[in-house]
User: Fold this.
Amino acid sequence: MDSENREISISNEDAALFINAVKNQSDYDFSDYSDKSLKRRIEKILSDYKTDVYGIVSKMRKEPEFVEKVVKEVTVNTTELFRDVSAWHNIKFRILPKFKDNNVINIWHAGCSTGQEVYSMLILLNELYLLDKAKVYATDINTDVIEVAKKGVYKYRFNIGYLDSFDKVLKENPFNYDEHKDISYSKYFDIDKAQDTIRMKPFLREKPVFRKLDLVKGENIFYTKFDIILCRNVLIYFNNKLQNKVFELFHKSLYDGGYLILGIHESMLGPMTAKFEKKGTNYVKKP
Ligand SMILES: C[S@@+](CC[C@H](N)C(=O)[O-])C[C@H]1O[C@@H](n2cnc3c(N)ncnc32)[C@H](O)[C@@H]1O
Assistant:
């Protein structure tokens, strides 16, 4: 917990008051978010606004725009380019090659945050000569992060670890250590140390379709099925009931044999496990 909000600790009743206020003032519903992490986010909001739950609820009632702002502050948007290198090795060597003979490869990043996961995928697709046949869709509940994702410009110093992960994923093959490729960063992004930015190349930025989508609603807004759905480090914020609802949505939205890729510390529990074959942290839709 952050040192500044260590002293704020809200009760279940306070959390319920907050959830109901959001529900009454908007079409967002946090009822099935995981209690612990939602409470921590509410505590942080109370600390940032130096108020208590009654103060926040009354501000939400008076200012409808404030609800949208609070909703964005509830979300945790941490992400990285090639986050969890082993997952990307797996995607590169084990998953994407399965779809190489498709005419089209449909990919959905659900909970894409500021887009680094999407650019990681686009870079890999290009390396495997699959970019042209890929259709990449990316969604998040938070429109601020979607705007950042569309721009594809990130802080260089803050994200310096990106280059290390890029090297590991793009240049090395953990299944064959003799293999080593030489790929320059400038093929995919421009680094401007004076401006402190990493800027994704236009051919990558033009490719994905970014849309706002709240997974709580249980809808696939794209009217297409997918070969691969990535939903990494999102479901940890949901309780089992909501996780299961989202697994149902993903099951409906995948082609048979399609892959659901979760975060490396996440796994599927509950009734939907019968409908997928588990391969590590990936789940393949059974026919
Ligand atoms: C920690 S980030 C994960 C980003 C990326 N997938 C990764 O693993 O690096 C979680 C994202 O889930 C989004 N999120 C949270 N609740 C959501 C919901 N109900 N519907 C859609 N996205 C949601 C947040 O806005 C945030 O951007």
Summary: DSSP finds ten helices and ten strands in the chain. Residues 12-25 form the longest helix (14 residues).
